[in-house]
């Protein structure tokens, strides 16, 4: 084959990424997700070959595809010896070092290296029977002794071979004895218990470590030295039954890694030179202990993980072209302004982006709950002794005085509450229980409603809880960040013809974007779900575990900034008052009434209130109507609006009885509701009128009864005349 170094490195071509592993691994959904993302960048040509080439001795490694970067990892039935020959020959950049992966094939060697580099792991003793070695074994019901080294039961027995998953757990006599055999998942089984097996195996080489019961089994996945993803799963040592979600996948829960676990992940990446790596951790007594390192491993079904993994592989590959990591290369931008200020340089159009304003909503939240009560009791009004404005209580110290006052009020009402206060007592007990249970998102608000002689005599008590950010909401907030800077701050569409030009353009783009994002300012409303979303967004945007200082702003000034302070707000309030005055009027208005003027039909007559100036119309045109106005409105309604209804009744005489019964039912249900007025157009039909009566039931009782009787009387007159 042609040597890689013999070609023209300046020729126009993409970066060739080779993937050499078992076909089952390269065709998995997780691998496809990552490779599809790499292809989408337009900078890579991905070449995949599996065991049909790698394991075929007739195909020389010189004839393998030539690549600039290589992803290769071992698995059961796939030996890396020929891949290592290829790497020595072609010298591609390896995402995971192929030589150190030999360590994962021998658990004894793995544990020795973990101890050598200070990575915490449990104490081990070994039964090494390789090359015909003899091991002195002494075993009782409570301990084992190998070559003079003692370990108490329960113990875990692991074969030396890293790909052998036939792991046994032996229990001591006081634990009931017996052995649990762990194996690769078969349907919903991952282990089986055998009560009659109490002695360790003596036919091979094994590692022994202490078994800890009742601890969390943690899976950690690294993407480079600066990122680690943690998941907790049900341990196979519990009962051997695999917990699965509705999709049939093993159920795993996301977990936040401790500082020690993050340090361990970085240490493993650097020691074994494995950027994409998975390892198992046991949390015990506040510490983390590594029990196995698996090498190349993926998180399954996590799109955010796939995005992060593809971005990291891209950085490593493009950075390897110049011999350095892509992020460590600092080149001055082409525009002088970009070098001096935190702006983003668009290399395609030679544009400079100085600022970018984006509005986000918080992530998914739990349902919000609210309870509002009208209060006139001195125990509640006491909260207004130093203020006449709204009182908001969020912190536990703030709620404590209110809780004491609430307990006094409940105790007084329980001793002798009036019948009208029994329902209020029930609601107050609900408020007390919400406070005592310390529900998430709890907030107490007291709003003054009536003030007499400078004192609050009536207030509204609002108890709110819930509305906190869910785990899915937190993941959504993290997902906002890559979408934000990948869509808003896009990479150059023409990265360059040669690999060196591509690396330079990519470095320039990353430097410009990083500098631009250094000046990010986030303004969040003063609510926990909003601030939690903002923190997650910032951490993911700046790629840091901590929120940089002076980045997140959330105070009263920010709340005023986010509230509606536009000029239209005042006009909206005026319109609301005007609509309320019309709706709460007891008069029945029709189109012929000068006080009813829909938008676009205002009369030009000087006598019309709508034709007057807005101030006069608002001040004098919508006073509550008198009894005379109400009677006049009814007469106008009968003379103009009901003529079409009477004609309708004549044409549909068959349905008259049914419609009359509907009207009677509406009157019976009406009772004494007199809140809202009622509008009828001149050209509406009877069905619509009856529908409104039944739906709203807010027409004044007397007006509706008089209107109905008038319809019946007119109908009788028509019949007599006919």
From TrEMBL:
Transmembrane helix listed as a keyword: no
Keyword RNA-binding attached: no
Catalytic activity: 1D-myo-inositol hexakisphosphate + ATP = 1-diphospho-1D-myo-inositol 2,3,4,5,6-pentakisphosphate + ADP; 5-diphospho-1D-myo-inositol 1,2,3,4,6-pentakisphosphate + ATP + H(+) = 1,5-bis(diphospho)-1D-myo-inositol 2,3,4,6-tetrakisphosphate + ADP
Biased composition (Low complexity): 601-612
Subcellular compartments: Cytoplasm, Cytosol
Positions in coiled-coil regions: none
Family annotation (SUPFAM superfamilies): Glutathione synthetase ATP-binding domain-like (SSF56059), Phosphoglycerate mutase-like (SSF53254)
Cellular component per GO, a single term: cytosol
InterPro entries tied to this protein: Acid_Pase_AS, His_Pase_clade-2, His_Pase_VIP1, His_PPase_superfam, VIP1_N
PROSITE patterns registered for this protein in UniProt: HIS_ACID_PHOSPHAT_1 (PS00616)
Protein name: Inositol hexakisphosphate and diphosphoinositol-pentakisphosphate kinase
Taxonomic placement: Eukaryota, Sar, Rhizaria, Cercozoa, Chlorarachniophyceae
């Amino acid at each position: 084959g042609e040597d890689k170094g013999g070609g023209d490195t300046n020729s126009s071509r993409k970066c060739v990424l080779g993937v050499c592993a078992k076909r089952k691994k390269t065709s998995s959904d997780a691998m496809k997700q990552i490779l599809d993302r790499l292809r989408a960048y337009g900078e890579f040509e991905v070449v995949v070959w599996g065991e049909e080439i790698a394991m075929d001795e007739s195909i020389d490694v010189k004839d393998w595809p030539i690549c600039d970067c290589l992803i290769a990892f071992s698995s059961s039935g796939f030996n890396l010896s020929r891949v290592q020959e290829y790497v020595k020959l072609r010298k591609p950049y390896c995402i995971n070092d192929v030589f150190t992966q030999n360590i994962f094939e021998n658990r004894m060697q793995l544990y020795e290296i973990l101890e050598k580099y200070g990575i915490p792991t449990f104490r081990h003793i070994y039964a090494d029977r390789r090359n015909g070695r003899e091991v002195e074994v002494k075993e009782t019901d409570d301990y084992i002794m190998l070559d003079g080294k003692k370990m108490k039961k329960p113990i875990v027995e692991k074969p030396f071979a890293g790909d052998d998953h036939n792991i046994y757990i032996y229990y001591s006599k006081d634990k009931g004895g017996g052995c649990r055999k762990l194996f690769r998942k078969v349907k919903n089984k991952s282990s089986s218990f055998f009560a009659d097996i109490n002695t360790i195996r003596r036919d091979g080489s094994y590692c022994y470590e202490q078994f800890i019961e009742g601890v969390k089994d943690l899976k950690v996945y690294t993407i480079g030295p600066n990122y680690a993803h943690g998941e907790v799963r049900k341990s196979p040592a519990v009962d051997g039954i695999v917990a699965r979600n509705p999709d049939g996948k093993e159920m795993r829960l996301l977990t936040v890694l401790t500082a020690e676990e993050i340090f361990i992940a970085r240490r493993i990446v650097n020691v074994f030179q494995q950027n994409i790596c998975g390892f198992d951790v046991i949390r015990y007594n506040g510490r983390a202990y590594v029990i196995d390192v698996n090498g190349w491993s993926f998180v399954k079904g996590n799109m955010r993980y796939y995005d992060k993994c593809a971005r990291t592989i891209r950085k490593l590959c493009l950075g390897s072209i110049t011999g350095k990591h892509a992020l460590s290369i600092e080149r001055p931008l082409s525009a002088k302004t970009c070098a001096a200020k935190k702006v983003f340089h668009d290399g395609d159009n030679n544009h400079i982006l100085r600022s970018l304003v984006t509005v986000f909503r918080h992530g998914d939240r739990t349902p919000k709950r609210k309870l509002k009560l009208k209060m006139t009791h001195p125990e509640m009004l006491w909260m207004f002794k130093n203020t006449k404005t709204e009182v908001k209580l969020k912190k536990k110290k703030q709620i404590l005085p209110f809780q004491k006052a609430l307990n006094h009020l409940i105790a007084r009402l329980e001793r002798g509450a009036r019948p009208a206060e029994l329902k209020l007592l029930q609601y107050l007990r609900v408020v007390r229980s919400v406070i005592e249970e310390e529900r998430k998102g709890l907030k107490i608000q007291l709003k003054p409603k009536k003030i007499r002689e400078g004192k609050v005599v009536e207030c509204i008590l609002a108890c709110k809880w819930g509305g906190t950010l869910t785990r899915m909401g937190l993941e959504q907030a993290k997902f906002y960040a890559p979408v934000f800077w990948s869509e808003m701050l896009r990479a150059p569409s023409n990265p360059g013809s040669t690999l060196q030009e591509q690396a330079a353009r990519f470095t320039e783009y990353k430097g410009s974007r990083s500098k631009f994002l250094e000046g990010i300012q986030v303004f969040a409303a003063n609510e926990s779900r909003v601030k939690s979303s903002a923190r997650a967004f910032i951490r993911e945007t700046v790629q840091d575990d901590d929120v940089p200082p002076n980045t997140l702003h959330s105070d009263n000034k920010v709340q005023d900034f986010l509230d509606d302070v536009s000029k239209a707000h005042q006009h909206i309030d005026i319109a609301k008052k005007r609509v309320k005055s019309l709706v709460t009027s007891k008069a029945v208005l029709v189109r012929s009434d000068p006080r009813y003027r829909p938008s676009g039909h205002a009369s030009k007559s000087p006598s019309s209130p709508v034709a007057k100036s807005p101030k006069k119309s608002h001040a004098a045109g919508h006073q509550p109507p008198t009894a005379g106005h109400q009677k006049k409105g009814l007469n106008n309604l009968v003379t103009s609006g009901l003529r079409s209804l009477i004609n309708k009744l004549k044409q549909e005489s068959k349905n008259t009885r049914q419609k009359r019964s509907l009207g009677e039912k509406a009157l019976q249900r009406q009772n004494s509701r007199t809140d809202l007025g009622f509008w009828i157009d001149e050209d509406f039909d009877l069905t619509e009128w009856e529908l409104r009566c039944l739906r709203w039931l807010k027409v004044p009782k007397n007006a509706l009864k008089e209107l109905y009787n008038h319809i019946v009387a007119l109908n009788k007159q028509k019949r007599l005349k006919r």
